[in-house]
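Okay, any thoughts on this one?
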Amino acid sequence: MWTITLSRPRSNELASLSVECPHNLRAADQFGLLIAVWCQRVRDRIEVDGIVQPFSFGFLAGEVFVESTGGRISNQGRLSVEAARFKIVNTEVDQAKKGAAVEGKIAADLPKWLSFGRTGVELGGHLNRTVSKTEQKEGEQYRIFWRVADAGYNFWRIFGIGLNQENLLENKILGDEPLCYIEASDKNQIDVNVSFRCDLRDLWFQRETTPHPIDRRFDNDQEEKNRTAVARRVIAVALNRKSTNADVKAGYGAVILAAQKLTSVRSSNVVTGE
């Protein structure tokens, strides 16, 4: 059996993470990881061209990484959770047989099906990475959209599809079922580092409604300027740094929002309870 110790989790106002390994998930040759992730939208203010503007932001998707030293992630018991599925009608199947790109059509329809806002079309192509798959069952074809997608090797992608009107990651996302199992090697100690990170291409933000006239800085031709300003604020929140010191190269990149380390030591005596 295994004796488990956990480090203090590192988190912030955007996201938090908690790793557990209950006794019922521990066996002689492996143990399971129960990983809980909470997310929320943040309300803040930025200054653009000398004017302070209130806004809110969050993420449409994120990734959970599990890095193990002294053990390996089992191929069995890897978590995947569906968010929704849609039937592909016969006309689309026929088009596919003729060489038409059903994948492209469905990706283009994704913002409409899931009620994405104005950034939906731009983000649709990026979110299409592991967000869905096509399945054939009893002669019918379905497109499955994931809440939790097993992306292979040591990471999982999670999506806010259907959680709220904006499809944001919000409230508790993971934690009711084991994410994966760690198989033991011949070593007596296994270290597991778990982190939750988001890509700034999956960033959603919206100007807060105010009674003031329309702010032309938020017109489409200024979208990138404001997006970079928000990206700087997100990085500042994640790194607990001032936004003026945040390095935003091309405005995009991965940001680690939460992390925790688990250390498991092989016990000589069998543990039967807490």
User: Anything to note?
Assistant: The chain has a mean pLDDT of 75. Residues 2-81+149-266 form one domain.
